[in-house]
Amino acid sequence: MTESEERYQEMTSFRNKIIDKVLHSPINDDWSPEDISGSSFFREVHDFATTTIDKHGDWIWLNDVLKGHKMKAKEGLELAER
Questions:
Q1: Dihedral of CA 54/59/64/67: which sign?
Q2: pLDDT tens digits in sequence order for the chain, 82 residues long
Q3: Taking the complete model, does pTM exceed 0.85, yes or no?
């Protein structure tokens, strides 16, 4: 089998399937959502952003080009905590 045939075989194995008239993605076979029970969505996003700021530094989170104002992620977290 040639390299291009192998790539085609790999690509076609990830095609959507129709089962009982319902479209199913093959991604769902390999993926399952992470359990975040006992926590809130806000807390998860806040902790992720804080960790990212600590590891990689702050970044522009919102950019208002009409007013020329840029808000950094750390500033957004401080406002959200109020």
A1: positive
A2: 787 777 766 666 667 777 888 877 777 666 667 776 677 888 888 898 999 999 999 999 899 999 999 999 999 989 887 7
A3: no
